[in-house]
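Recall from the previous lesson that a structure prediction takes nothing but the amino acid sequence as input. Here we apply that procedure to T9SS C-terminal target domain-containing protein from Chryseobacterium indoltheticum. The sequence below is the only information supplied.
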Amino acid sequence: MKNKSLLIKQALKSLLLCGLTLSTAGLDAQTLAFPEATGFGRFTTGARGAANPQIYLVTNLNDSGAGSFRDAVSQPGRFVIFKVGGIVNLQSVVAVAANTTIAGQTAPGEGILFLGPRVSFTGANNTIARYLRIRYGGTSQNQDASGIANGANIILDHMTFTWGTDEVFSVNWDNNGTSPDNITIQNSIIGQGMHRHNHSAGGLMQPPAGGKISLIGNLYICNKTRNNKIKGINEFVNNVVYNWGNYGNTYGHTQSGEAYIMGGDSAGASYANIINNYFIGGPNTSGTVSTPFSVGNANFNLYGSGNYFDNNKNGVLDGTLVPENLTGYPVGDINAIQTTSYDYPMKNPTLTAQGAFDNIVSKVGASYPRRDQVDQLMISDLMSKGTTATYVYVQSDLTTQFGFTNGGAGHIYGAPAPLDTDNDGMPDAWETANGLNPNVFDALAVSTTHAPYLNIEVYINGLHNTAAPDFIIPPSNLNFTNPVTTGTPASSSLTVNWSDNATNETNYVLERSPNGTAFTVIATLPANTTTYNETGLTPNTQYYYRVKAVNATESSVYTSNASITTPPIPSAPTKAANPNPSNGFNDVQLTNGNLLLKWTGSSNTITYTVYFGTNPQNLSNVATVPYAAAPSYQLSNLNTATNYYWRIDSSNALGSVTGDVWSFRALTPSLVGNWPFSEAPLSGEQIADLTSYANHGTLNVAYDNASVRVTGKENYALDLATSPNTPYIASIPHQDQILFNTNSFTVSYWMKAPTSMIPSSSATSLYVLCKGSFTKNTATGATGKRFNVEIKGGQLRYAIDDDVTKKEITSPIANYFTNNWVHVVIQRDITAHKMRIYTNGVLSAEGDETAVTGIGEASDLIIGNIGELEFLSTTNAPAPYKGAFDELKMYNYALSPTEISALYNQAVLSNAEFSISKNVGTVYPNPVKDQIFIKLPEYKKSSLTATILDMTGKIIIKEKINANGNGVFNLNIAGKKVSGNYILNVSGEELNSNFKIIVQ
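The prediction returns the following tokens.
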């Protein structure tokens, strides 16, 4: 079998060598993407290959819009030239279009950096990108900093990719578009994969069968693993891999690390040249490994030569040659190790491993016009030769450890772009020096000296061979202090401040504008100045400022515009406004009797006086609050079911103003919806709500039949088996009492479904109920806020979502699909910051809901499908639950475990239904303060025993009481120091009844 295997592999090798020889021979006469282009992607044409190429000038650092990088790469066929340098803070992923040439080396000053959501080269067929820095650094899991999921003929040169939370840079086909092929990544840094999620990884290089990738002269640094994980046709030449692994981490993460993964668990054959690379262990690399190559499989065929491994961490580059056997390359079969290289473009590199190290130290990454602070740090770590490394858990570590600004990215200073009169992307001085006319737009003409390159390519391809011009570092951090306005005469003043970053300036030029566009010089100040006192300004007026540094021959770029509105002429404050809780709101949720009042006021307020009470005509002065931009005051010892009134008076040295009287009512914990589905077939569309809200639900009248209105847990229920995917057939209208925005709530229902209804796919969802929406949509009114019960992935899932933070808890699906009636309770408890699921009266899941804010959406509650407003768009597909549903109840507070157990045992929390005997009466008043009156028309005895129990069953009060002349029993609880929710049990001869009471 070994001989047969050897013959097969030799045949595959012969075919591969033959095919590649023929294919590359036909390409020898093609034009290189740029003179230093190597590897399989070396003949990429970029924008030159477009039918009608264009020049696009990036003129600002905005995320989007005209002149932005996002706009520049949004259309194919463009040469992207930068007229600005600095940091672009991305708000979403940027996708590079096909046939694009991106010349990051043209960004003046310290170059260009894209920070935040990734820049993607997926679909960027026939693209050249050079000298860009792309740092992701987000906190969400499983996101590459950049990569290629589909696309061919792409070359990326002198790039820096860092801070991925999954891979840093991967080529991994998504089975869409053009399969990855003829891709080169060269002279680039792939490093500092974030360790936050214990998935710091260089990248996957996994094209489909026949896809070819070259990795030439790159630095892989401070990634735990996959530096790279290689599959398919690949050449890995003149690279340096440094400090792989996470050994010694202090975060409790599992320790591991791989430098070069030879196929790993990837299916399919691989054919790789691995030539003249240096693998250097660092502080986070295991000291016990004997080779940098690992996880080889029997399908990984390789030629390995000139690769060195240095893991002694002694600060000297003195590695040893990796042996060309199964010890050095553990693929499991010696026949997979070739004795001659595959006929790939870089099979005969001119640099040794030592030469590759030196070249990388000198030039790797976005090194032109200058390396930034993060790249310099990585090169410094590399030059320590094993003694130092930067373990980046999150990007802010670089701020903590090294003082790097901008969230750890450090500074990237811009500079003025060179003069380009005709705006063709080529500076006047360069055009003149190269025999072109700086007044003629001739960038897209074929060069007369370097054909078939275009003039613009000759310029950008040679730029890195010239010294980066010196520039004046611009000032930064423009801000204002001491804004003052006087009334007589009416005049304003302020101080303008900035940071002095330059060392070669002679002056600072400060400019002011009334509109942010037309600026006037107001001061030329000496070197090293950092403040300027502005006087004679108009009160209550917005002004814009900018400043630049200059010397005799040049100037820096301006700071970003900063604006300030001068204070108004001094006057008494205006009335406080925007009360929270809002005026007249009747369902205020208390937290252990506490409530935070909030309001807004004018900025000239000195103090606020808070008045509060239960009588709007007689409010008490309860506090004096100093001015704050967001003022508030904490109330305590409040009672439920009570009307409160409050007022805010505002004062300063010039007077005071009396505020309006606002009111709110503390929430009465109660049942706010009760839909027993007791309607028989052919009763019509109504689903009656038995509470006083009478918030009747609706059943699609087409389904008002005996197949849907079936025998239920009690009386009738809804069987949703015949309901369509769309639209939903049953809903409860939105009303304020079921908004459940920021308050506690409990939802109780019964469900019945057979095991056969469990989804066969873990990706399939069934929604038992949903109130709200998944995706914000201004066109439909969807807010992205909701609560829902979903069946998916073997779990019943209860989720709440405020459109920013989603929290979800789960319970195994087997508990619910039993073909028996199952009682389900979902709950949000604001006081305890918990969300819970109860199953048949027993707690089955609990989770933290901290960080979730308001989840209320003014849309109907849908039974058996996704949210109402989702049906107005196609973003989210319907997901109907087809089982039975019964006895829906909703409460505006978190029921106790005892109350939930009572619900399961068919008791409900209303005076009309909570009794457990037929001797039902009434209890009043409820809520109660001092005296409880009990009327039992069918009870003829003159005495009974009244017992008050808390929700855990503990007896609080127990007394024997007598009826008065009208047959009404009276229980005096004045002075008993009880308040809250209780159970009142009355017992006597043939009497045993329970009532829920609220004691104030």
